[in-house]
Amino acid sequence: MAAAAAAAAVGGPQPPQPELPAPGLALDKAATAAHLKAALSRPDNRAGAEELQALLERVLSAERPLTAAADGEEAAVAGGGGGPGAAEEEALEWCKCLLAGGGGYDEFCAAVRAYDPAALCGLVWTANFVAYRCRTCGISPCMSLCAECFHQGDHTGHDFNMFRSQAGGACDCGDSNVMRESGFCKRHQIKSSSNIPCVPKDLLMMSEFVLPRFIFCLIQYLREGYNEPADVPSEKDLNKVLQLLEPQISFLEDLTKMGGAMRSVLTQVLTNQQNYKDLTSGLGENACAKKSHEKYLIALKSSGLTYPEDKLVYGIQEPSAGTSTLAAQGFAGATGTLGQLDSSDEEDQDGSQGLGKRKRVKLSSSTKDQSIMDVLKHKSFLEELLFWTIKYEFPQKMVTFLLNMLPDQEYKVAFTKTFVQHYAFIMKTLKKSHESDTMSNRIVHISVQLFSNEELARQVTEECQLLDIMVTVLLYMMESCLIKSELQDEENSLHVVVNCGEALLKNNTYWPLVSDFINILSHQSVAKRFLEDHGLLVTWMNFVSFFQGMNLNKRELNEHVEFESQTYYAAFAAELEACAQPMWGLLSHCKVRETQEYTRNVVRYCLEALQDWFDAINFVDEPAPNQVTFHLPLHRYYAMFLSKAVKCQELDLDSVLPDQEMLMKLMIHPLQIQASLAEIHSNMWVRNGLQIKGQAMTYVQSHFCNSMIDPDIYLLQVCASRLDPDYFISSVFERFKVVDLLTMASQHQNTVLDAEHERSMLEGALTFLVILLSLRLHLGMSDDEILRAEMVAQLCMNDRTHSSLLDLIPENPNPKSGIIPGSYSFESVLSAVADFKAPVFEPGGSMQQGMYTPKAEVWDQEFDPVMVILRTVYRRDVQSAMDRYTAFLKQSGKFPGNPWPPYKKRTPLHPSYKGLMRLLHCKTLHIVLFTLLYKILMDHQNLSEHVLCMVLYLIELGLENSAEEESDEEASVCGPERCHDSWFPGSNLVSNMRHFINYVRVRVPETAPEVKRDSLASTSSDSLSSLQNSGTAQVFSLVAERRKKFQEIINRSSSEANQVVRPKTSSKWSAPGSAPQLTTAILEIKESILSLLIKLHHKLSGKQNSYYPPWLDDIEILIQPEIPKYNHGDGITAVERILLKAALQSRMNKRIIEEICRKVTPPVPPKKITAAEKKTLDKEERRQKARERQQKLLAEFASRQKSFMETAMDVDSPENDIPMEITTAEPQVSEAVYDCVICGQSGPSSEDRPTGLVVLLQASSVLGQCRDNIEPKKLPITEEEQIYPWDTCAAVHDVRLSLLQRYFKDSSCLLAVSIGWEGGVYVQTCGHTLHIDCHKSYMESLRNDQVLQGFSVDKGEFTCPLCRQFANSVLPCYPGSNVESNLWQRPSNKSIQDLIKEVEELQGRPGAFPVSISSETNLSKEMESVMKDIKNTTQKKYRDYSKTPGSPDNDFLFMYSVARTNLELELIHRGGNLCSGGASTAGKRSCLNQLFHVLALHMRLYSIDSEYNPWRKLTQLVEEVNSQQGNEEQQPEVPILYHDVTSLLLIQILMMPQPLRKDHFTCIVKVLFTLLYTQALVALSVKCNEEDRSAWKHTGALKKNTCDAEKSHEVLLSFVISELSKGKLYHEEGTQECAMVSPIAWSPESMEKYLQDFCLPFLRITSLLQHHLFGEDLPSCQEEEEFSILSSCLGLLPTFYQTEHPFISASCLDWPVPAFDIISQWCFEINSFTERHAEQGKALLIQEARWKLPHLLQLPENYNTIFQYYHRKTCSVCTKVPKDPAVCLVCGTFVCLKGLCCKQQSYCECVLHSQNCGAGTGIFLLINASVIIIIRGHRFCLWGSVYLDAHGEEDRDLRRGKPLYICKERYKVLEQQWISHTFDHINKRWGPHYNGL
Length: 1893
What we know:
Elements: H1 2-11, H2 23-27, H3 29-41, H4 46-61, H5 65-70, H6 74-78, H7 83-100, H8 105-113, E1 124-125, E2 130-134, E3 145-146, H9 147-152, E4 160-164, E5 169-170, H10 205-225, H11 235-256, H12 260-271, H13 273-280, H14 287-302, H15 311-317, H16 325-328, H17 336-341, H18 344-352, E6 360-361, H19 370-374, H20 381-391, H21 396-404, H22 409-421, H23 423-432, H24 436-451, H25 454-464, H26 466-479, E7 482-484, E8 496-498, H27 503-506, H28 511-521, H29 524-532, H30 534-545, E9 553-554, H31 567-587, H32 596-616, E10 627-628, H33 633-647, H34 660-681, H35 690-700, H36 709-722, H37 725-735, H38 755-774, H39 783-797, H40 802-808, H41 824-833, E11 834-837, E12 851-854, H42 856-862, H43 865-871, H44 875-892, H45 923-937, H46 945-960, H47 989-992, E13 997-1005, H48 1025-1030, H49 1038-1053, H50 1063-1069, E14 1078-1087, H51 1089-1101, H52 1116-1119, H53 1131-1145, H54 1147-1158, H55 1171-1209, E15 1234-1235, E16 1242-1243, E17 1251-1260, H56 1289-1303, H57 1306-1312, E18 1320-1331, H58 1332-1344, E19 1358-1359, E20 1366-1367, E21 1369-1372, H59 1380-1385, ...
Helix pairs in contact: 3-4, 3-7, 4-10, 7-8, 7-10, 7-11, 10-11, 10-12, 10-20, 11-21, 23-24, 23-26, 24-28, 26-28, 26-30, 28-31, 30-32, 31-33, 32-33, 33-36, 34-36, 34-38, 37-49, 38-46, 39-41, 39-43, 45-46, 45-51, 46-53, 51-53, 53-54, 60-67, 61-64, 62-64, 62-66, 62-71, 66-67, 67-69, 67-71, 68-69, ...
């Protein structure tokens, strides 16, 4: 191909230059460009034009090698001009130069931009971009704004949300067609075009010449790159071509961004037909151009498109304007041949997918219009560019370029027409595409910009037949996947439906086209054209009928179906999107009377389509058994348009209703669905698998219900209101298969239903009737009433969040209907019916959202069980609503017992539907009600309270809606009725209630108790006729009645009745032969409905004569019947209410009720209760009693458990369980007793069988996060704000340690400080103990447990067997007496000097333990293993600080630091001080005592060399022998004044043999306090300036010889200053001194305060330690007296100390040796160090003792500020914008969640950061989800969000995009859990993260 290109170049007219232009030219592009521009500016510019053409020809063809590269022949090209890349760049450079006309390209861009009338934003974005939508400002619901325009406009108080674009979009700011001008941002508020200067001609002159060639060049590449292959072009090839074209398309895109001036030039170029013709016709001798034209024709052809050379076809292409193309061609009769033509390649592709037995159906007499489907002619660059864009499956770059041009109005129109012209081609490409999802998104990205604009849509509809094209294309698309329908008559059915298993439906491939269709139907002008065009309506109904009856379910009767198909998702989605949403779109334009004609059209064609459908499936009168389809879109179209006609257009309903026969047919299938729902819920379809339940749920689910079940019920209501009521009622019971159950006999035989399903099916039938008769959704309720009813129903089931309510209330499903979720009516109704419960925080964790709960008056008056039943997806929700209702009645004292669902008054019926109430007044229903009441009274089987409830509900409905004209006087006996007149005289319920029925003849099995051998054992119902007229007994058969009625109606409506009678149907209902013989028996009844009700009252209340007519006492009741006492209650109340209503409606009823009550009702005759039934009754009673017993046991158990939990949680650390009775006489030494929570035994912990505490060890860096300033750090939200960690506690301690290690001996350094500020090990316990051997077997059982746990047993993790708290180790309890402290606590009178000696001796004694380590006992083994656990809890870097790795000093340091960490953390949990005293939760379950034993045991293994023991330095004066002479080369030890005193304390104590004596402890504290105080004085002296120092030195010196000089801080300070002045410490001052010195003048008070503050942290830790070791309580105190209280508690204050005068810290000093000597010794060490390093010496002395409590970063009020800054921020590691950005809430680091880019050694960034920042605990805010995620070691959990919207709800993943605000309480909870290390206990849902976060 390279050769061909070269040849073409040679053969052309231009000079033969296959390589680049001559070097001279290349060097001086600018000069050439300037020259050409000048030439073209002359009036006669032909020469210049030719020269330019030649240049372009040459430059642009130099890029030719591109195609070769695309074909993989890089080698061939390598010689030709530096490869394709170089050539392209060269060409682009040339273009830029030429455009700029010799100037600089950047200046040129700026110049063009100046002429941009930027009235529109038009910013185009791609998927995942974050944009905004404001419903208040939007005219079109698709309106969207880029973030910049949104934030610059004013949308305060508007209904807006942020969203993540799915398909891409463009900013509408400035476009007044789509949004209101008030919402425009500051940049796009309309500028009048007058003030934009006119564009100078010469500025863009070159562009007009250069761009056509450039675009043509691009098109040629696209042509050449596309090889029409035998198979589908591989994605790879296409992508390769596109990659190579990237720079060119980007160049075009940059041009579009130059603004309006350049866009209009581009529009000219793209739409100019002459240019296109000249360049692309392929005529002329240029071989290359020819070749590319041929490729273009091949591509067209292979796409199944013809190039209209042929005049005949050409004529079709442009039909006479105005007439619909479809009409022009006689739409329905488009000849068969055209249908056959339709692309044969489709057939082949489809064949390969072999669909097994379900053969695809092809429609041969296809209703397609060839010109729409198969003809394309390109007349401009734009058209061909779009063609290739489609061919290449919408590459993102091309789409963006085409959309960037849209702000140009002229282009917009041209492009829209082009898009429409290619619509069919788009559909074909989409169907074949492998990436249909991506492609769909890109198509919609374009189309939504075009079709949202009403003006444009109208124009295209008129000029380009947009509607015809869309409908035809949709029809064509669906035709490719039709199969024969198997509904009804499988063999002879002519109906075809879509096959839901096809990819087209399964993957929703059709949605771009459907969504465009819905979009244009939202414009009134377009929808009107659609509704007026009969041809279109016919086609559309044709399209809808493809979905009628799809996804047919057949009930499996034998074995379970082996493969559960999931096609139902596709079916429901298809009906909703392709049928229902366009329907709602059309309905939204039929709101006024003037639009009646439209409704008539739709209804007419809908009925025609339905008639065709009935004919096609061969339907007569009986639906095929055991089949159901949930998809009847034609029925639903018909129903919804009827509803609209009556509600909004004042149409007369009868004028649009068909004849009776059609109504009968119409009602069958929706009724079949209702019956099937009941069957599915009765588990009759279990063999079909779970998916059938899924279908039943989806059918009523909130997004579908108003397009599915609501229209179905409405259609049934319409049919019921117009058909014969007896016929309708019989049909219902027959469909529900419970006809045989409705007999007076106690036993019966059901030929179509198993006994176990009878009850639930009967309940189903009655419930359906109740819904049918009481639902008013389409029968007269206003929109607001509907909304209110829906809302009440949802709130009654459960409290709901605002968003879930929005989701659950069925909105108008057409998203573009203009009814906005969250519209004003929604909010006002919500506030009327519900109260807002603000989110509450239980301390134990679960965070709730803000909920809405129904107001009391809603429960009282508006709770409507019928609506609840209709709207529940899960049956349990009905129960939940009833439970909540019951609770409300109990709480408000309205009704104590178990109430029945309340009866709710209904809104009045619209007059058109009055006929519906005839159902309540038909004899058939009355007979059924009578029969059921009788059966319930007689305790027949299979009846439930629910049945009775529904029966009473129906009776009450009938009484409420009775015909008023019934007068009491004339008992209206009409003429002889056809319908079994012997049962009831008339059809009015009021009068029928009092009618007594004496005898009934029933058919019963011979085994039944009723059988009296009857002479008439005839089985045919005809021979009963003689009896029937004699009035002795009634017989009744629903089925026979229904048949008779049906026959009559048919005969009335058509003469061809003879062909309708189908004899085979009757056989269905005859009993199978195997059944026992039926005989006839006559029962004596002698009851009326009223008498049955009264007896029922007795039965329910369990008393005889319990009913007493209330009006006998209070006649008022009859006058003013609304009595609240009857509103809520159980069955008894319901019966009383009904009897009262019956009495109200007729005097006769009232009289009869009184009569019945007067006759003392005899007890129910016992003969009716058979032995068997007696048995069941007894059984019931026994069950009831058993239930009560069980309840009682459970309650008892619960209370026991509760009291156990309370005690368990309040255990005051397990050792103190036994009350300490300390008697002075003789200390009783009792062993501590522990309970093992596994084996339940209690006993002491022993050497052989030690007991341990359940503990959780975790590494923690919380301490390291303390800072020294009170202001918490803020999360950075701008580039300027950064957080630097050098002021944290951890950083300061790190610096100090490394400073010491630089100058002093390593081993000594490691004793001078504590570590563990970062990565320290924190030990916490739940307080439960267990035997260690029991624990081992417990772990073993966990290991073998297959259940997936949230923890890893291999890492030693488990949950406490008792309280289920998370744990990972067991801390052995040290055996010994519990009150050991008694022995040791008696104060000894030894002097401090003696004690000091004892301490030293004890420390020197190796391993002075009762257990010598040498003898390996179980206990010592456990202690070692727990020590290992403690070490392994934290990372190595947090344990090894020594310069020599693995030195024992490391372990030594680590061990006493563990003690330090735990004490410090406990202090933080107590709030940083001990003012609150002992009453803190932290102390309750502390395990410090046991921990100390374990640590001490191990510390004793490392005895400190007695020479280095700091104890000596503290308590003895050392003679300065060879102080510093011999060991110059060795590093000195750390001076004692640089030691951390708290660390020294822990070292001293842990080195002592345990248990420690109290006086030894006090002695150590006293000694250390002297050092601490000296340090404070030194620090103070360094802090103040020279004059202060000399003044103090002087005043102190005067008092030196007073008696208590050693206890006066002035004296001591002056001594310290004079000692240190000997060294260089104070000399090195000068400049940087000012920074350190505090400007305050030191008063004695401020000095005292400084000294106390310096010493307090030590006193606090020491007091805590004393509290744990000796079990002494901590006193509580005020903050200002904390120092004195703690020091006296520690025994530092002499007991005789008087506290009258102000307290002085120095009085606590108790010097073991003369103060001045020891101080001068300590100061000497400092001086010798500062000789060399004065600066460091000073830095080490000033210690920051006062750390503030740790806090998480402070977050901004509004989430948007975080989001806007972080979601576009680039990661500092990989410099990309992360897909899932996250930010650490502890230190503010920005990280990539799950980002592979920042992975290090298989650890993703978040996990890595959690180890570095929190020693394994990380708290991250996920920016794109607003959720906080916690990482703890190897597990993670989603914690929830601390940002809530205005309704107190989280918005995880920012799906709703509403503004979010910080919830301070939640953030506090999070911080609390972090500080108290309780994430593991409180959060339940943990999972492993496998280092992948």
